[in-house]
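Practice problem 4.
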C-alpha cells in the first residue's frame, strides 16, 4: 500500500469502479463538481445511490491505496474509522482524484463554515472552493489569512474567519451550532460535505471540525462512543436508533427540542421533536 491524499475538493467513494451511473459523471470527473451533481438529482435518483456510494473524502484527506485498476484506486480512509477495516473506511475513487500528501506543517485547522475559498495569495486568484470539515495544516498567518499546505507540495490561503483550530477546546454547544449550519440541506446517502450529508456523515464531519476522531457509520459510532442512559441525554449528546435484531441505522444530535439530524433520502436536515416512530426505535444514547 502507498500513502496519498485527495487533491480535489470532494471525492465520492464508491462500492466498485462500475458503481457510478451516467448521471454521476460530475462526481467522478477528474475535476469533480459535487455541487452540480447534488443539484441534478431528484429523490428517485438519490435513492439509487444506495449500494453505490459509501462516503466522501475531502481535500488533502490522507488515504492508503491498496490497488489500482483501469483509472480507479481501491483505498482506505484512515480519518474515517470503520469496523470494516482497522486501517480505515474502504472503497473506490478515481485515481485522478489523488495526489501526494501535503508537506509537513503544524497547527491543524478546519473549515467551520459551509464553504471557503482557497486562494493563490491573500485576496487573490481562486484555486478551489473547499467544503466544511476540510482539515489542513497551517504554515503561516498574514493579513487575516492563513497559508495552508496542499497536496503535491503546494500551498494556498484561506480567510481566518472561515477556519477553526482543531486543537481549540469545544463543548456541546459547538456541536449543535455547527450542525445547525446545514438546516434545510437535502439528505445525501454517503454525504460528508456541505453539498449533502447523511445522518452519520453529519456527526462525523462536525466531530472532525472539533478535533474528534469519530467513526463514519452510525452503528460504529454507537459501538465506539461511551453509551449513557437515554433519560440522561443532554443537548449535544447523540441518540441512536435501531429495530429489533438489527444494527443501529440512524443517529442524530440531541437538541433542546428533540433532535438535530439528517433524516433520510427525500428529506432535509432538520431540528425538532422526535416522531412516534423515532421514539419507538430509540435504542441508546452516547456522549463524546
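Answer key:
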Amino acid at each position: 500500500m502507498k500513502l496519498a491524499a485527495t487533491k480535489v475538493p470532494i471525492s465520492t467513494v464508491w462500492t466498485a469502479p462500475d458503481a457510478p451511473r451516467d448521471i454521476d459523471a460530475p462526481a467522478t470527473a477528474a475535476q469533480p463538481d459535487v455541487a452540480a451533481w447534488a443539484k441534478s438529482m431528484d429523490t428517485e435518483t438519490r435513492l439509487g445511490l444506495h449500494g453505490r456510494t459509501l462516503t466522501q473524502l475531502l481535500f488533502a484527506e490522507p488515504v492508503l491505496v491498496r490497488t489500482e485498476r483501469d483509472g480507479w484506486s481501491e483505498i482506505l480512509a484512515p480519518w474515517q474509522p470503520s469496523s470494516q477495516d482497522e486501517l480505515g473506511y474502504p472503497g473506490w475513487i478515481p485515481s485522478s482524484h489523488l495526489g501526494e500528501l501535503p508537506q509537513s506543517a503544524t497547527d491543524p485547522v478546519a473549515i467551520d463554515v459551509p464553504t471557503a475559498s482557497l486562494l493563490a495569495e491573500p485576496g487573490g486568484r481562486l484555486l478551489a472552493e473547499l467544503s466544511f470539515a476540510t482539515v489542513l495544516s497551517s504554515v503561516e498567518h498574514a493579513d487575516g489569512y492563513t497559508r495552508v499546505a496542499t497536496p503535491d507540495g503546494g500551498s494556498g490561503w484561506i480567510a481566518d474567519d472561515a477556519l477553526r483550530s482543531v486543537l481549540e477546546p469545544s463543548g456541546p454547544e459547538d456541536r449543535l451550532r455547527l450542525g445547525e449550519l446545514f438546516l434545510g440541506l437535502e439528505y445525501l446517502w454517503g454525504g460528508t460535505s456541505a453539498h449533502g450529508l447523511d445522518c452519520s456523515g453529519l456527526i462525523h464531519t462536525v466531530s472532525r471540525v472539533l478535533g474528534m476522531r469519530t467513526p463514519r457509520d452510525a452503528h460504529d459510532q454507537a459501538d465506539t462512543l461511551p453509551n449513557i442512559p437515554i433519560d440522561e441525554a443532554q443537548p449535544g449528546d447523540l441518540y441512536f436508533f435501531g429495530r429489533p435484531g438489527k444494527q443501529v441505522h440512524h443517529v442524530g444530535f440531541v437538541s433542546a427540542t428533540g433532535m438535530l439530524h439528517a433524516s433520510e433520502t427525500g428529506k432535509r436536515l432538520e431540528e425538532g421533536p422526535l416522531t412516534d416512530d423515532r421514539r419507538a426505535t430509540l435504542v441508546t444514547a452516547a456522549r463524546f
